[in-house]
Prior knowledge:
With about 425 residues, the chain is mainly alpha-helical.
Amino acid sequence: MDSVGTPAGGGELKRYLGVSDAVLIGLGSMIGAGIFAALAPAARAAGSGLLLGLTLAAVVAYCNATSSARLAARYPASGGTYLYGRERLGDFWGYLAGWAFVVGKTASCAAMALTVGTYAWPGQAHAVAVAAVVALTALNYTGVQKSARLTRVIVTVVLAVLAAVVTACLTGGTAVAARLDIGADATAGGVLQAAGLLFFAFAGYARIATLGEEVRDPARTIPRAIPLALAITLVVYACVAVAALSVLGPVRLAHASEPLTEAVRAAGAPALAPVVRVGAVVAALGSLLALILGVSRTTLAMARDRHLPHTLAAVHPRFGVPHHAELAIGAVVAIAAATVDVRGAIGFSSFGVLAYYAIANAAALTLTPAEGRPPRGVPVLGLVGCAVLAFALPLNSVISGAAVLAVGAAVHGARKAGVRS
């Protein structure tokens, strides 16, 4: 690929997506991944400092989004930070970003698939998870336009469910707003850890950048779509977090297995509980759909450069999608969803994605004003914030995430040594 992001081989993808499509793909990933999965562990870490952790995660996400948007406008091709790191920092850093993204997000795909299974049919969670992966992989195979249309429906349903949850909690007669006492029982370490966990919920805007080769007028569309998707998600998250805290309080929220279901019951609206469960299934499906899209496009970019098997760079002549990459990712995710308990994937995924965005911010620092560099403080704050949040995560997440990065670095070194010999 040359300096403006033209594919070096394997065929070009077709530009179908406008601003609204790109925003909806980002929303489908962020809202589905976070609000049903990350609230309870974040509350366990931060207590009443949950909202502080949410704010901190949003600030770091904003810096990352700004850096990513400027880079994506400059390099409007598939791959996201894999491409930006390679073009601005060198082959190793691009490879490391791609490695962190593909491995971390593949685990996230399995986690979202299992979320679908757990809510839809708890006794057959693994089987339902595999079926969901197969169905969405087949949908993605037939073209990104169909994926965008389904995402539009999913986002509409999820936002309607969350609006009902917020309304029930804030108008119910059992609110415990006096217990909020924001930050009263929080520690700095707990707030940082909560922010790192909640960052998992904000990482979906990466899907917009990784689909850069399928976006119309990317220099205009991507810088508009990323901050818009992030802003909408932040408003939704803040409203839901306040609503859940107001009826459950930080202690009950921290120990809730299904936080929003328990919140509507505590608010005196038990009839909404089945609706919330359906919303969770739909949200997780939306997140899984967007995750498979993003991981397959980064896989495509790495395969074009032969960091992964070159056959994964193939683009379907009719549907205009990286069909070999999508089938490979779908197969790996299906196997993981069938055999592995990935409930701890949030921390692992967060570490990998924070490393990915640290590289994005470092790449954005190398842009010149003529290339659209953001204010220098933005990528600096994003880089520092990513590093701090990554190492504030639970220790097992830090260890496993660092080990994955070390393996990636070793593979890259071995490959380079093989080429030289």
